[in-house]
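note to self — DONT lose this again. spent like an hour looking for the file last time. sequence + predicted structure for the chain T wanted, 203 res
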Amino acid sequence: NALVSSYRYTYGANGFGFDILFESAIAMWLWAILFELTVCAEDGCSLPAISSSLNCGRHQEPTAASVAELKGQLVGNEAITDLNGSYINFSDLDFTEKRLHTCYFSHSEFNGIDFSKTNMRLCFFDFCVFIDCQFRESDMKYSVFAGSAIRRCDFTRSDILHCNFNGIKAVQTIFNESDFYFSTFANSDLRETTFNDCNLKKV
């Protein structure tokens, strides 16, 4: 839709494109080194294949069956590791108190998702869109949200340590009473967004 398109393609016009693309390349390098990686079956492509699929989201739109299987894994398990859910639309799902470790959701869209009290480690949400999502009391470390659009989301009372929010566009979003130790927001556009009573040391 127009909102998604404007969020995703704004950054190059504002001069942030190179930085965010560089960070995305670093993210892919880390993914290949640290995580169990299944490479896309398309010749010459080094991107990770979507879980339950042979190809990445750029070279094959996930089938309804593969998306249903992937969502079933997310909803049906408390601990999810090494899952690739990139280029997929997620809506109205409950991820509360899940443990997401070394998961990859680049270029995905999240609408009305409840991530409250979720434990995230080394997860990649770069270039994603989040609308009306809850992250209250979540525990995030070493995760990437660079280049994402975040609208009407709530991160209240969360621990968000060593996370990358560079180049995000946040609108009407609440980060109050949260710990952002060593997280970064370089080149971000924050509108009607609050950081009341937060730890911003080393930000």
